[in-house]
Amino acid sequence: MLVSLTSTTPVATDLGFLLHKHPDRVRSVDLGFGRAHVFYPEAAAQRCTATTYVEVDPFGRTRRRDRHRAQGLEPYVNDRPYAASSMLSVALGRLFRTALTGRCDDRPELVARRLDIEIQLPAVPVRGGAEILGRLFDPLGYEVECSPIALDSQFPAWGDSQYVAARLAGRQTVRSALEHLYVLLPVLDDAKHYWIGPEEVNKLLLRGGDWLGCHPESELITRRYLRLPGFIREAQARLADAGEDTDLLGVQRDAAEEAAEAPIRLGEQRLEAVLQAVRDVGAGRVVDLGCGEGRLLERLLAEPAVTCAVGVDASVGALERAERRLKLDQMSERRRERIRLFQGALTYTDSRLQGFDVATIVEVVEHLDPERLDVFADVVFGHIGAASVVLTTPNREYNSNFERLDARGLRHEDHRFEWTRSEFEAWVRGIAARYGYSVEISAVGSSAPVCGPPSQMAVLRR
Ligand code: SAH
User: Fold this and answer.
1) What residue ranges of the chain have pLDDT lower than 50?
2) May I ask the CATH architecture of the domain 264-461?
3) Nearest CA, atom 13, ligand 1
4) pTM of the predicted model as reported, rounded to 2 decimal places
């Protein structure tokens, strides 16, 4: 998926200063669900274009709960890699974070300048009809042009798709153009690729606070952006209370900036917390039990103190994805000697799993049937018996902050249960006592009042 931002106000290459991205270079960031790149197809004094391109990792997406829910090929063949959506919005937030906060250290005088800006979106989903594009962007001072995209050019009788190619042109500061896209892309799509938590209200007010209050479609925007009645009411009340004075919106800038990255950050925070725990217990030989597609293994290999990293999973598909992620076939021999992947089940003893300093078990226990937990504990703590074990699992109490849960109120259809903080603690303490480990429990992710953090971690030492 793509979005291009063109300035035609000379000197147009000033766009590079405003975006904090040099026109001669390509910059890329990893987003968890794929990678985003920014580059300049043209950079001249009269006209300069910065294009953001997001590559969605199709395997990453199908691994998630979509796979269990959707039928047939939908998880593998869908519009997400092509259509402008909340993923593009997250990419813009990441790539242009400084521009979005209105900072330009090299040329501070440029920040408040309105430029003739043109935005090209080759494929935008417009749920609720193409006229919605005009309703959202006209009031913000854009001239909106949109051309329908045929569902299939070989079958004209099928008519148009729900996507359009859009061109938006207006005199805008670069910061406000980015804010408009950041907020309105998920609104046009009427969907988000991540769970909506309480921090979304602050994100919306942070990026939209300056223009949302007086936008005629403010209700539609808050409704589609926030989706949950409680959050919508809160945002609308804060906008109404603040009136013209956006300082009264009560957005704590730093906290909201951080939250703006929350969808990327929970997974990241968990990996970082686990890595830190592995470092704290002294690393050495590490086995990642239920390694999935190898995100942790990738990080472990980058740690000099990890002399050997082994990934085990029951799923061959996950192991194949891990192999691709780690690029095992291209790895130098020295590195290759430090890593091994194999298929195995955590409910059966397996001598290949013995002799490790640390075992990590990240978001795996909740995939086991509760009646298998005793066997699992016996295998992991009795048989494998690593000197230290680092284990994470969701905190069910936090689920009320998520928009989409399955019929049982759990986060993934493959989860057999999810524990509250006290249930987790009771289970871990029982294990520790039975197998002779000490235990420390900590929070992963930022805690919400009453319901605690999204995820929880136990570090056990023998
Ligand atoms: N630790 C990874 C993956 C978590 S998803 C991460 O944090 O990204 C849970 C993983 O546990 C899946 O890859 C699943 O195949 C694996 N798994 C579930 N039950 C298992 C079992 N009994 N034995 C081995 N692996 C199992």
Assistant:
1) 61-68, 70, 264
2) 3-Layer(aba) Sandwich (3.40)
3) 292
4) 0.58
